[in-house]
Design a protein that fits this description.
The complex is a heterodimer of chains A (about 240) and B (about 475). Chain A is α/β, with parallel strands linked by helices and about 240 residues long. The radius of gyration of chain A is 20 Å and the shape is globular. Chain B is an alpha+beta fold. Chain B is built from 14 helices and 15 strands. Classes of the chains: A alpha/beta (about 240), B alpha+beta (about 475). The interface between A and B is medium-sized, with 32 and 27 residues.
């Protein structure tokens, strides 16, 4: 069986100009002075791994190791400088909850807008609308513009929209628990339900307990390179040793 | 790929194409077969003296087009009523008579052009020279008319002297005059375009259909091609597109009391202000000035607002682009569509003004569909170009704010086209917005279809700019996220 996600020798380089040039005048000045020097920054170096169907794979590593960049390359937001990524299935990108929210629009309008951004169809959203509202517990606030919501309500609504579907591939960047203690429990339960429901999951976490509980395999990134890729226990142990 | 949805999309596109083709053919009709060519006369400066019996006036003229229906002569009556008959003879340079006409002198009014319509149109090759001979019968001194002559052309407020070759000067009796008679020649040019219209249209359709069939078969084999990607994108993202458009549209008027009605009032009020200011200046020169003005205002406003909102499509959605993958073209496209809806709403006040000014509603107004489609292509191309430029250089928004004002003033919106210096006309013609606005005005005010060349210009400018915009956007889109 072919893997759901294949990451083949992916390198990601960013150009870091002395100062980011974003005006024509600056561009011309820099060009004339011959100072168009770019410092290259390699966020990912030759990263390869794959995720099988129905598998839960964790991404661990220190801050700046390239975890978020990897997720962005897989979800298509960034084009890799070298190498390629093959994804077989629909991705529900949950890189940041509620990134498509518009604060001038009501909760109801935002459910449809955000749902559309996540790639849901109209019929699906209509049928799941009540479920989303109920799960988010925003109640009568659903017809109020988002700017009047509390921050907890916004994250709850975002979580409810993002997890109402059972996607083929779920990409999660540390969004496992949001809201207050009761909602955290609920959201955690929902995540577990998704992960055990046959969905392929790729997720980033710093919580080693969570990783050990959920993942079948783990990718350990260090300075943009794959330090280790394998069974959860061995990678986690090595990572914890390295940290010390 | 969603086969059913794509088939529907293709069928709708084909139907639209043929509907438009048929519409243009039915409405354009005569304008596709003929175009009127009128040679302009010199500006009258003096009279040539009384034309009495026995005196012949001759003038050599050149035909502007192959079919000539008649002439117009500027006559003078010395402020009195004269009796008699005027004989006009058209002869070729060998002396063979081509056309002949008699005019009743008593009906002449001083200083006006007298129309002379031949019994049968004269068919001659273009640029043929011929002699116009004028004699009178029953006229003597004190009871005779005269003709005006001139040696300069009118150019706005000034007259520019023309050098006239010796054989082109008029001759009265046996004296050679100092200028040329003021004569206008009314001709029509037969256009061969209508013969090829159906051929061109059919060939284009067959070509498009053939490409689609080839792509379709390849799609069935599972290979990717532009048709597949367009159809997949359409079937997958049409809901998202609708959501984004409605957001764009609702947000614009979200906190205003009058809401969408502003789309309606805005052009109307702009027109009213400009009407009050400029009607004194240009009113007499332009027939149906309110409609002339509002057409320009509505079209130009669509263009400037669509580009200024559309160019922020990428930078304004930075938070989304950095987080979620979707085709980037969706962002500018949603803004273009919401601007288009606004534009369509602002056509309602235009219709109101058309009704109020009692401009006759004619089928030619249906040709606006073609015009608007072409303008839409141009606007979409410009939005793509500007939003790409804007992502890399934030200066673009400031450049555009100056450029849009310049563009508005350089397009004849509130001033008549006649005040444009003749020398600069070719440059004006290169302005696509001028083409679209002129097209619309011809359809609405004159009630006829523009000439085929206008159609060509509209399609060409629109296609070139759209293609350029799409290509540039496509080439740069993967780099957008690095510059946000």
């Amino acid at each position: 069986m072919q893997p759901m996600i294949e990451v083949n020798n992916v390198s990601m380089r960013f150009r870091m100009a002395n100062d980011r040039i974003n005006s024509i005048k600056e561009y011309m000045v820099q060009l004339l002075r011959g100072k168009m020097k770019y410092k290259e920054f390699e966020a990912l170096k030759n990263v390869s791994f794959n995720v099988q169907r129905g598998e839960v794979v964790g991404l661990i590593g220190h801050n700046g190791a390239g975890k978020s960049t990897t997720l962005k390359v897989i979800s298509g937001v960034l084009q890799p400088s070298e190498g390629n990524v093959i994804v077989r299935g629909n991705i529900a990108p949950m890189l940041e909850l509620g990134s498509g929210f518009d604060y001038d629009m009501t909760g109801k309008e935002n459910i449809f807008l955000n749902g559309a951004i996540l790639g849901y169809s109209e019929e699906f959203l209509n049928s799941k609308y009540d479920e989303i509202v109920a799960f988010s517990e925003v109640g009568e606030f659903i017809n109020v513009p988002l700017r009047n919501y509390s921050s907890g309500m916004i994250t709850r609504l975002a979580f409810s929209i993002a997890t109402v579907i059972e996607p083929e591939i779920l990409i999660v960047d540390e969004v496992l628990s949001v809201g207050d203690a009761t909602f955290q429990k609920k959201s955690h339960a929902r995540m577990m339900e998704l992960m055990h429901g046959g969905t392929t999951v790729l997720f980033v976490s710093h919580n080693m307990k969570q990783i050990r509980n959920m993942c079948s395999r783990v990718v350990w990134l260090e300075n943009g390179q794959v330090q280790m890729f394998g069974e959860t226990e061995s990678v986690c142990a090595a990572y914890e040793n390295y940290k010390r | 790929m969603d086969m059913k949805k794509s088939r529907k999309l293709l069928a709708v596109l084909a139907a639209c194409y043929w509907a438009l083709v048929l519409l243009i053919y039915l409405v354009a009709g005569e304008q596709f077969h003929y175009t009127a060519v009128k040679s302009e006369a010199l500006s009258p400066s003096s009279v040539i003296g009384e034309i009495v019996d026995g005196v012949a006036v001759t003038q050599r003229l050149t035909l502007p087009a192959e079919t000539t229906q008649g002439l117009e002569l500027m006559v003078g009556t010395y402020g009195r009523t004269n009796q008699g008959t005027m004989h006009l003879t058209l002869a070729d340079l060998d002396g063979k008579t081509i056309a002949y006409k008699e005019l009743d002198i008593s009906s002449f009014a001083d200083g006006t052009y007298v129309p002379v319509v031949f019994d049968e149109p004269v068919q001659l090759q273009v640029e043929t020279q011929f002699l116009l001979t004028i004699t009178t019968e029953g006229c003597d001194h004190g009871n005779a008319v005269t003709l005006y002559c001139g040696n300069s052309v009118n150019a706005g407020r000034f007259d520019i002297a023309q050098s006239i070759e010796a054989e082109e000067l008029y001759i009265i009796g046996n004296q050679t005059g100092m200028g040329k008679l003021c004569v206008k020649i009314n001709s029509i040019r037969t256009l061969s375009f209508y013969k090829t219209y159906w051929v061109v249209v059919a060939v284009l359709f067959v070509m498009a259909a053939a490409i689609c069939v080839v792509w379709w078969r390849r799609a069935l084999q599972g290979k990717t091609n532009p048709l597949v990607s367009v159809c997949t994108l359409y079937s997958r993202y049409d809901f998202l597109l609708r959501q984004l458009v409605s957001r764009e549209f609702n947000k614009k008027y979200k906190r205003s009391v009058l809401g969408v009605t502003w789309s309606f009032f805005n052009p109307l009020l702009t027109m009213l202000v400009q009407y009050i200011v400029f009607s004194k200046l240009f009113h007499s020169n332009v027939p149906n000035y309110p409609v002339y003005l509002l057409t320009g205002v509505v079209f130009m406003q669509f263009y400037t607002t669509a580009v200024s909102t559309g160019m922020n499509a990428i930078t304004g959605n930075a938070s989304l682009i950095k987080k979620v993958y979707m085709p980037k073209y969706i962002y500018p496209l949603s803004r273009i569509i919401s601007s288009l809806i606004n534009f369509l709403i602002s056509l309602i006040p235009l219709l109101l003004v058309i009704l109020i000014t009692k401009t006759p509603i004619r089928p030619s107004m249906l040709l606006l569909v073609f015009d608007i489609l072409c303008m839409l292509g141009f606007v979409a191309g410009m939005v793509m170009l500007m939003t790409t430029a804007m992502t890399f250089f934030q200066d673009t928004q400031f450049i555009w704010s100056v450029l849009s004002v310049m563009w508005t003033y350089l397009t004849p919106i509130f001033y008549p086209e006649t005040i444009i210096p003749t020398k600069l006309l070719p440059i004006y013609h290169m302005n696509p917005m001028y083409q679209y606005i002129k097209f619309a005005r011809t359809c609405i005010i004159d009630g006829i279809s523009p000439e085929p060349i206008s159609y060509l210009w509209c399609i060409l400018t629109s296609a070139v700019v759209l293609l350029l915009g799409v290509l540039v956007f496509k080439k740069c889109q993967s780099k957008f996220v690095l510059h946000l």
